[in-house]
Write a structure and sequence with these properties.
Helix content: 25-40%
Oligomer: single chain
Number of strands: 10
Radius of gyration: 18 Å
Shape: globular
CATH class: Alpha Beta
Length: about 260
């Protein structure tokens, strides 16, 4: 067994273990401040160690067309049921626009046609789900860094937050909307793209139409679907549950590197 596979399985298993604490009835343990602090410290060490060992711009493995999986599961939401999304879908996303704001110099909105007209990157990569399955797919889209350069980040920007159209059952803090976030290292990584195509065709709804994030060096729950708005921020603590993502607010690790 290769070191890469061993490490990948270990990291997936570690995330599953931490996540399972919140899903198996051990709420008191998960909510214990000392446990939370220990998990955050371990997560920070994992991120720093990985980046030190492999570098900020090292690419995730890319595959060939022959390697594409015949079946690629659509995890999470497969059809957002909100009225806004349903209206956009009925118009085949001709009226959809990606809003880009927050700590940027030139807030803007980009239509799907405008995004498709921008220089694209195509990559065939493996999607590793925290549930334990993997699949290989081909993704095409605009590098996120290209979009961020276009709007211009303000000096205080540290994270990029992705707001989505799918809504889960709300918790007490009201964080029912799916969202995710990454730091600027991952935002400007060459393989971090805003994907509008999968396996040579426009994204289908179960896979995140019209636009989804692909951040290839992290686990599947970071690959936010149904993008509606991108926000550059200095801090994550004031957004929904304050942990940087929908599942992170429920005990998952923020940094899900593989």
């Amino acid at each position: 067994m290769s070191r890469l596979i061993t490490r990948r399985r270990f990291l997936i298993g570690s995330t599953l273990t931490a996540s399972a604490l919140g899903l198996s009835g051990c709420d008191a343990l998960v909510e214990n401040p000392s446990v939370q602090q220990a998990l955050r410290m371990a997560e920070g060490l994992t991120m720093r160690s990985q980046r030190l060992l492999i570098g900020d711009n090292t690419l995730a493995r890319e595959f060939t067309l022959a390697d594409i999986s015949p079946t690629f599961r659509a995890n999470g939401t497969s059809m957002p049921d909100g009225a806004q999304y349903q209206a956009l879908l009925a118009q085949k996303f001709s009226q959809w626009q990606l809003e880009i704001g927050g700590l940027v110099e030139r807030p803007t909105k980009l239509s799907l046609a405008a995004l498709k007209a921008m220089p694209a990157r195509t990559q065939i990569t493996r999607h590793d789900c925290v549930e334990g399955w993997s699949a290989i797919g081909q993704w095409s889209g605009v590098p996120l860094g290209t979009v961020l350069d276009r709007v211009g980040l303000k000096p205080e920007a540290r994270y990029i937050v992705f707001h989505c159209a799918d809504e889960y059952e709300k918790s007490l803090d009201g964080s029912g909307w799916y969202y995710e976030s990454i730091d600027l290292v991952d935002a400007f990584h060459p393989q971090t793209i805003l994907a509008h195509s999968m396996n040579g065709h426009d994204l289908e709804v179960p896979h995140g139409a019209p636009l989804r994030l692909r951040v290839e060096r992290q686990l599947g729950y970071k690959q936010a679907k149904y993008l509606m708005r991108i926000e550059a921020v200095a801090d994550l603590s004031g957004i929904y549950g304050g942990n940087g993502g929908f599942w992170e607010d429920r005990g998952y690790e923020w940094y899900a590197g593989i």
